[in-house]
Amino acid sequence: MTHSPPRTSSPRTPAGSANRERRTAGAIVAVKRVFGAETGNYFLLLGTTLFLVLFGLIMVLSSSSVEEISSGGSFFSAFLRQGLYALLGIPLMLVASRMPVSFWKRWAWPAIALGALLQLLVFVPGLGYGYGGNQNWIRIGNFTAQPSELVKLALAVWLAWVVTAKKDLLHDWKHVFVPIAPVAGLAIGFVLLGNDLGTAIVMLAMVLAALFYAGVKLRVIATAVVVVSALGIAVASLSDSRTARIEAWLTGCSNENDFSNYCWQTVHGWWALADGGILGSGLGGSRAKWNWLPEADNDFIFAIIGDELGLIGSLVVLVLFVVLSVTFVRIMRSTTDNFSRIVTGGVMIWIVGQAFINIAVVLGVLPVLGVPLPLISAGGSALIASLLAVGVVLSFARHRPEPVDLSEPVTPSDRSRSAAARRSRPLV
């Protein structure tokens, strides 16, 4: 009688299981390296940004649905477009957060040159087109883009590179002037040629912020502010519609003749905010979005937020942008790299400053300037550019700064070599 041999497990099974476990562990480590970070500032900035984007998608759906239907579109048309832009922008933000500081320094000059070239395309017949009096978009088939949004990001990185490279020469106003004034002036001038005063003001604020964070003397910055203000008044006076809009704002929209023209948007924005009260009319309950308030899903989306979510919802939005600004400041204070600090400051002025300009316009504190609410308003170029800018700052916030070694004091010879280098360094 024969007996079959007892079954034994294959000797390859433990080894195969161990290999699978090692591969799984390796994949987990790789994912952690891609999406992990060492600082709380990184997660605070990322979480606040994502929350604002998701909140914006909800408000775009609510504020745009009626106008989309009345124009022959779908209830979800604007929401789906904005969702597509978010699906493109968020991965780009995460990719940008992985880039080293050297990458942004290396691409500073090409970025500003490419941005200026794209901005010039808005004046090419058949390619550029205008809307609402602004010639600030390009159209290729069904694809539209606003190059000035990408110019903002390029300007933030380029300014930081220039003032960092000339950090030992900024006590001389000539080194502050060259090349910042010509290059930044051309970039902002191209935007002004398209009649987009709001975007130009934001870019000017970014330039002044970069000078301030770089340690330029306050009297030089004050002189620049005076010159820029005089130029701004001159530019505003060249446009009859802009002058009339400013006059209507100065009179508090009390003139009945302005009600149906320059004050229509402002007054209906006020009515929407007043209709919301403390708790709001409920999500989707706004009456102003029924073709009464122009740009309800874009420049005046804050009025719809106040209408549907009330004072409480409006304050939540304000608090979120305050959290963003505090996070930017924490990142600036935690880094030892001047370039990273100045870029972060420029992005902060761009996103948070533009948010408060937009809210001030809705409240009537400022005249209508045509700037969207960052990360919330409808608009693909603005959303993607803002997410890319946040990704750049995330790349600075990812790692903790290395401690500075103070054990080796600076010798007199080091100081003399540094002084000689400063005297011999030419204008950038």
Q: What does this protein structure show overall?
A:
The protein has 17 helices and three strands. With 428 residues, the protein is mainly alpha-helical. It has one domain. The protein has a three-stranded antiparallel sheet, with no helix packed on it. Helix 2 packs antiparallel against helix 3 (77-96) and helix 14 (301-334) packs antiparallel against helix 15 (338-363). The chain is globular.
Strand content: under 5%
Q: What strand line-up does the widest sheet have?
A: 1-2-3
Give the distance, in angstroms, between the N- and C-terminal Cα atoms.
97 Å
Sheet with the most strands, sense and barrel status = 3 strands, antiparallel
* Uncertain stretches of 5 or more adjacent residues: 8-12, 422-428
Helical fraction: 55-70%
Overall 3D geometry? Answer: globular
Q: Return the string of H and E elements.
A: HHHHHEEEHHHHHHHHHHHH
| Total count of strands | 3
Number of domains: 1
- SSE class: mainly alpha
What is the radius of gyration computed over CA atoms, rounded to a whole number of angstroms? 26 Å
Report the average pLDDT across residues.
86
Number of helical segments?
Answer: 17
EC number: 2.4.99.28
Protein name: Probable peptidoglycan glycosyltransferase FtsW
Keywords: Cell cycle, Cell division, Cell membrane, Cell shape, Cell wall biogenesis/degradation, Glycosyltransferase, Membrane, Peptidoglycan synthesis, Transferase, Transmembrane, Transmembrane helix
Membrane topology: Multi-pass membrane protein
